[in-house]
Amino acid sequence: MPYLIAAVVLVGILCVLDLILSLGVIRRLRIHNELITKLMSGEATSVAMMMPVGDSAEPFTAITDADGMVTEKSLPGRNLVGFFLEDCTGCQQLLPDFLAAAARFPGGRERVLAVVVHTSGEEKIADYRGRLAPVARVVVEGADQGIGAAMKVRGFPAFGLLDDGRLLASGPEILRATAPAVG
């Protein structure tokens, strides 16, 4: 009889633990559902992929493919910046939008900086280089280095509109803005 009572108590405790875990999962799913609904309806902005709006880029130095050295001081006025990762599906999907925004950006190629981040080797980024070079100065760097670290990039793709090194806006929405609104 004592074994039966111990077994019933044990099963009861397991049932209570399972109920608590299930309620926690249901609560988390409701939160995710609300976030997804807000993102799809446009109520919420996208997740911040770089430093907060209003912050300034930390000092950096990088070498572009064809234009020499670039620093935070060599980006006066308004500049469009895009960060891409070699094997990133979202980066491939938004690359045409970035190319179009870069082509119409006031000041042209001198005011657009594209940073391509490689994690395994530079051979996979040739496509990015070829497509970005006509409309932007291209910098290739490793993860968590140089410009990405200076602008606190946390995910890819990341896009920013800088004004004298200070972030005015970020996110893919800035790519869809018209040229006068961006410039």
From TrEMBL:
Keyword annotations of the record: Isomerase
InterPro entries (alphabetical): Thioredoxin-like_sf
GO molecular function: isomerase activity
Top-level taxon of origin: Bacteria
Name the record gives this protein: Thiol-disulfide isomerase/thioredoxin
